[in-house]
Design a protein that fits this description.
Layout (H helix, E strand, L loop, with lengths): L8 H9 L7 H13 L3 E4 L6 H11 L4 E5 L6 H4 L1 E3 L1 H13 L5 H8 L5 E3 L1 H6 L8 E5 L6 H13 L1 E4 L3 E4 L5 E6 L7 H5 L2 E4 L5 H11 L5 H14 L10 H13 L7 H6 L1 H4 L3 H7 L2 H19 L1
Parallel strand pairs: 1-8, 1-9, 2-5, 5-8
Antiparallel strand pairs: 3-4, 6-7
Helix pairs in contact: 1-2, 10-11, 11-16
Length: 307
């Protein structure tokens, strides 16, 4: 029996938080509406802010299958929808010839049957699933080209795919569709119009601290507070790529493994590669800059504690 969808924004927020995803009110609202209206949800934002995680959490809390289409440059329909197992078809043809089968219509029907069809993510998502319609994650759509976007319009409009040799496959119930983009290029407006849209930004300090406590409960309060203060300050610097929530959690885990109970400049310098993924950013922040930020956030925390 499929789990019921949440019946309110508050219920959606609670549902997501039950699996450790602390969504703010606007994000909870758009997720609720996407589920309620059966519309695809298009999420844009910087890498590492939790766009992909939303699909994973929905799959977990709703107990639905997660089907992921990881996009990349040159993605074609054979990799996204289906292809025929040509080698197996050729073997079938050779065997039929050896057995003297001369009914061409029957042979064609046999080799284009379901057992020779290799189903890719989009076709899999349209099929019935025991636990209810699956969660279809179309991840990093901005990596594909406009031709693939154009095809996706048809799929998202009617939730059906036409296979010339078989016919049209149409979903009895539409899947829950989550589309993500890191905005390396603009996605066409025609596709966005078919979706509900939300920009997933960096969390506030309060929410990021809550995320750490929910996802890394073994980390001490002092370290967690200093980590959040440092990363929030770091995002205000002129960096090529600011750290996302994923890097925050990785850094907290790394510091915890090093038995750190508070930040110090030496440890920060040694672990900047966990937070920053470009050498120019690391070079900019290591040494005196790292010490300046550590001193600044520790001073701010002491002042708040004294108030």
């Amino acid at each position: 029996m499929p789990k019921k969808l949440p019946t309110s924004i508050d219920a959606t927020q609670e549902l997501l938080s039950g699996d450790g995803y602390l969504a703010d009110r606007p994000l909870s609202t758009v997720v609720y509406l996407a589920l309620k209206l059966g519309r695809p949800l298009f999420l844009e934002g910087e890498a590492g802010v939790g766009k992909t995680e939303i699909a994973k959490v929905l799959s977990s809390v709703l107990d639905r299958d997660l089907i992921r289409l990881q996009c990349y440059e040159g993605l074609d329909l054979a990799a996204a929808i289906y292809e025929w197992n040509y080698s197996a078809q050729m073997i079938e043809i050779r065997m039929a010839e050896a057995e003297g089968v001369d009914d061409r219509d029957r042979l064609q029907s046999d080799i284009f049957s379901d057992r020779f069809l290799i189903k890719r993510p989009l076709l899999q998502a349209l099929e019935p699933h025991a636990g209810g319609p699956p969660v279809l994650l179309i991840d990093e759509l901005d990596r594909t080209d406009e031709a693939f976007e154009a095809f996706l319009l048809e799929v998202l409009s009617d939730y059906q795919i036409t296979i010339p040799e078989v016919g049209t496959v149409k979903a009895a119930e539409p899947p829950i569709v989550i589309i993500t983009s890191n905005r390396t290029r603009e996605v066409h407006d025609a596709l966005k119009r078919r979706c509900l849209y939300h920009w997933v930004g960096y969390p506030s300090a309060e929410r990021e601290l809550a995320i750490i406590k929910a996802r890394k409960p073994g980390v001490g309060d002092k370290l967690a507070e200093e980590v959040v203060g440092f990363i929030q300050a770091l995002r205000g610097e002129d960096l090529f790529k600011s750290p996302g929530v994923a890097e925050t959690l990785d850094w907290v885990s790394a510091l915890n493994e090093l038995n750190a109970i508070a930040l110090d400049p030496a440890t920060v310098n040694d672990t900047l590669g966990v937070l920053l993924k470009y050498q120019d950013d690391i070079a900019r922040m290591e040494g005196s800059e790292a010490k300046r930020l550590v001193d600044q956030i520790q001073s701010d925390i002491r002042l708040r504690a004294a108030e």
